Amino acid sequence: MDWTFNGYRRLDGRVGVRNHLLVIPTSVTACTVARRIAASLSGAVAICHEHGIGQERLDAVQTHRILANTGKSPNVGGVLVVGVDQDDQIPPVFLAQAIAATGKPVRWLTIREAGGTLKAIDWGTSLLAELAVRAAECRREPFPASMLVIGSKCGGSDATSGLASNPGLGAAMDVMIREAGATVLFSETPEIIGAEHLVAARAASPEVAADVFAIAEKFEQQLAVMGVDMRGGNPTRGNIAGGLSSIEEKSLGCISKGGTTPLLGVTRYGDAVAPTGGLYFMDSASNDIECVSGMVAAGCQIVCFTTGQGTPCGAAGAPVMKLCANPETCGRMRDNIDVDLSPVLRGRQSLEAAGMEIARYILRIASGELVKAEVLGHTEFSITRLAYSM
Amino acid sequence: MTSFDGFRRPDGRVGIRNRLLVVPGVVCSAHVAVRIASTLPGAVALPHQHGCSQAGYDVAETARLLEGMACNPNVGAALVVSLGCEGIDGAALTERIAARSGKPVAHAHIQQMGGSVATISNGIEQGWELLSAAEAAPVVGGDLSRLVVGVRLGQPDDSFPTLSAAIDEACAAVLAAGGTVIRTTPGGDLGFGVRPAAAGEHLMDAPAEHEIEALTGLAAAGAHVILYGTGLGTPVGNAVVPVVKVTASAQALADWGDHIDVNLVDGASVLDALLAVARGQETAAELLGHDEFAIRRIGLAL
Questions:
Q1: Nearest alpha carbon to residue A63 among A32, A106, A94, A100
Q2: Closest chain A residue to B29, measured at CA
Q3: Which of B28, B111, B210 is closest, CB to CB, to A389?
Q4: Do B55 and A228 touch (CB under 8 A)?
Q5: Which of B30, B114, B291 sits opposite A332 (nearest CB)?
Q6: In a domain, B223, yes or no
Q7: What is the structure's pLDDT at A245?
Q8: Is the pLDDT of residue B302 over 60?
Q9: B80 and B201: one domain?
Q10: Residue % of chain A over a pLDDT of 70
């Protein structure tokens, strides 16, 4: 097997599998303008969100960090930052500078200086067109698969997730790490609860094991402060209908999507993960869109997403491959499912064979093959919230 | 002359707009909701990033605010779009909206209908029927006594004494006619997004700085129209409520001229603008397509 793909070389040494133009509003107030600018050029995506005004410091800092890291994603060939005013809670110039540190072309504008919505759309479209011309100069060239950072996620889980699709994806992640030298980031802190000792047992060092226990404990403490039992939110209503009895049962199935290689580290939500090979765990909510957005911000060029009940979830800036082992869902939601793993559930395909097939498919996606979420235009994005608005 | 023609709702309220609101029950169905709304004239979607993996108060709060938006009198009919496995129960949300408002409401369900494409197609079909049902709303005469007017003031500046006085004067006319005024402030005694039980003046708890959350709270509380007094200028609007930008600041007029509805520097009247908007005149935010939305949450996501 030739573990290479054709990608886009970035000046910071990373390699993209897509060449998107990203339009980033610094606040919810700038979203309408950002969306309209992005709509005017093909290949452009706006990452609309509900933040960036009246946020407590921790939230404002996190919003800035996630927006900046999303702009830095190797899948992004050019960025336009849209602010309302220069002294927005997240100043557009700071965000633009943070992203420009990667060497990619970045421009910014404010709606106030443009003179309102229409003039800002006009100005922004011109700036984005210039960025598009520069981004279009990039050409795909061959790279080793060790340049890939792959997100591993599950959502809309049911009983088939833990039985087949998560272990199948885990087998693929093992192949990508062991044979291709890639880096894998799996996540969802609420879904290691009850199984944290099993994740910690795979840690490459006592420090990493301690980090695993620490994030699980911190999460449970935060929940206690809110005065709620996590069983109110997870497993979700749908998970229970899908045959999952408890968070422990859900967790046992969930952690298998990370495969079986040693866990090399625990990373903060949305922090960059370098393509140095091996398995990492990101401390994140399991909310599909928040978690996938965090993976894209971390630099994952591709996210692999297992589902039992089916979900259309995509991402702004990265292909999200959907895998499912529930035969009913694979039929009913075939518009949204890329990989049918029901043969694994039926015992007609081994996990090893499925893992190899998925790994090969990952390389095809990396070289430009579109997943269904991309074809359908799913570009969801959101950022985990830490506190109340002011 | 303080009368206008509006749309009579089954709960007795009078709407000044007749929108079809497409409400995603969860972030996962937001894209499908946006696609459905984009094909239907007069439809607006309410994309948001909540509805799943939320704990306790946040789940209930998200469902309550979505319900409040759909029950706003400017909404003629609503289509709930759910994924299926999320924390918010889309069928229950649909039933609550129907029970509380009596409006035509339908539900599209991605996991049952079989994915994005099938649900978009089904949603468009159901949406057409809902639009026809909304069109059938009887037109009735209304006056200031029937209006719920939301008020939000931006960050204070030198123009604020003039600005506040002009808005106060319009509010006084609404109150004198027996109407309702809801102002916003952190710690107000009316709950965020809660419909006032009686006419008169109310102070709603809402963030001072997060303008979009504050506008959402007013819309969910049933405001027909929002008077937004601004010195610095802002482009924002709302999906179901016309937001009337009022300013007495020459700077705001210079920087945000396209967005200002009431120019107090030139002596325009807030009450006249309010009535014109109630009679159907579109605000700058409506013309420019500003339909921002955000809701408050208190806790971390699961």
A1: A94
A2: A312
A3: B210
A4: yes
A5: B114
A6: yes
A7: 79
A8: no
A9: no
A10: 97
Tell me if A387 is assigned to some domain. no
Q: What CATH number is attached to the domain comprising B97?
A: 3.40.50.360
Domain that holds residue A285: 143-375
Name the least confident of A223-227, A370-374, B219-223: A223-227
pLDDT digits (tens, 9 = 90+) for B106-128: 999 999 999 999 999 999 999 99
Give the end of a domain, one of A110, A135, A160. A135
Residue A333 forms part of a structural domain: yes
Nearest CB to A311; choose among B28, B118, B209: B28
With an 8 Å Cβ cutoff, are A50 and B54 in contact?
Answer: no
Neighboring chain B residues of A115 at a CB cutoff of 8 Å: 255-258
Residues of chain B contacting residue A234, judged by C-beta atoms under 8 Å apart: 53, 302
A106-122 average pLDDT score: 97
Which ranges of B72-202 does DSSP label H, i.e. alpha helix?
90-101, 110-113, 115-135, 160-176
Give the domain extent around B220. 144-287
Please give the distance of CA B242 from its chain centroid, rounded to a whole number: 8
pTM over 0.80: yes
Mutate which of B53, B259, B296 to test chain A, going by most A C-beta atoms within 10 A? B53
Q: How far is A197 from chain B (nearest CA, A)?
A: 19
What single-letter amino acid sits at B261?
Answer: D
Contacts A333 to B, Cβ<8 Å: 110-111, 114-115
Last residue of a domain, one of B76, B106, B136: B136
Same domain, residue pair B45 and B164: no
Chain A residues whose beta carbon lies within 8 Å of the beta carbon of residue B114: 332-335
Residues B154 and B128 in one domain: no
Chain B: nearest CA to A144, how far in angstroms?
34
pLDDT value at position B57?
A: 78
Which contacts (CB < 8 Å, 24+ apart) does range A141-144 have?
A141/A6, A141/A7, A141/A9, A142/A4, A142/A5, A142/A6, A143/A4, A143/A5, A143/A6, A143/A7, A143/A9, A143/A15, A144/A3, A144/A4, A144/A180, A144/A181
Domain boundary among B136, B158, B173: B136
The reply to whether B2 falls in a domain is no
Specify the number of domains making up chain A. 2
Is A312's CB within 8 Å of B32's CB? Answer: yes
| Confidence (pLDDT) at A227 | 73
> How many domains does chain B divide into?
2
Reported confidence tier of residue A236, pLDDT bands at 50, 70, 90: confident
Can you list the pairs that B90-97 forms with residues at least 24 positions away whose Cβ atoms lie under 8 Å? B90/B25, B93/B23, B93/B25, B93/B63, B93/B66, B93/B67, B96/B67, B97/B67, B97/B70, B97/B71
Same-domain status, B106 and B152: no
Mean pLDDT of chain B: 95
Residues of chain A positioned with their CB less than 8 A from the CB of B294: 28, 50
Chain B residues touching A25 at Cβ < 8 A: none
Shortest Cα distance from A328 to chain B (angstroms)? Answer: 10
**B52 pLDDT tier (thresholds 50, 70, 90):** confident
**CATH number of the CATH domain containing B267:** 3.40.50
A216 and A115 assigned to the same domain: no
CA-nearest of B140, B150, B196 to B174 is: B150
Nearest residue on chain B to A156, alpha-carbon basis: B85
Whether residue B130 has pLDDT greater than 90: yes
Vertex B295: Cα angle to B294 and B300 (nearest 5): 115
Domain shared by B168 and B230, yes or no = yes
| Domain shared by A183 and A322, yes or no | yes
